[in-house]
Amino acid sequence: MQVGDLVKVKRASIGVPMGSIGLILRSFKPRADYAQGRGDRIHEVQVYGAKVEFNRRFLGRDLELINASR
Q1: Whole-angstrom Cα distance, residue 31 to residue 51?
Q2: How far, in Å, CA of 15 to CA of 35, rounded?
């Protein structure tokens, strides 16, 4: 997944129901001591499926790619 991709949230969290749609704004690796070779990236997503649009950070495994940007 990369910046500009449209994604769906696979795991509900506070204020973000499962199935919410969002757009990836930023993507980065976590600190090395935290990741320990897992390869997960953190994505900052602008969420549209909730009552109020806002930005939230998710791990890549909690997102499903809907449409990739070209």
Answers
A1: 32
A2: 26
Rounded Cα distance between 62 and 66, Å, is 13
pTM of the full predicted structure?
0.81
- Measure the CA–CA gap between 6 and 2, rounded to whole angstroms: 9
Angle (CA) 36-26-47 rounded to 5° is 110
Residues forming a β-bridge with 59:
42
Which residues have a Cβ under 8 Å from the Cβ of 63 and sit 6 or more positions away? 1, 7, 8, 9, 10, 22, 24, 43, 45
| Beta strands per DSSP E along the chain | 6-9, 21-28, 42-47, 54-59, 63-67
Q: CA 15 from chain center: how many Å?
A: 14
Whether the pLDDT of residue 10 is over 90: the answer is yes
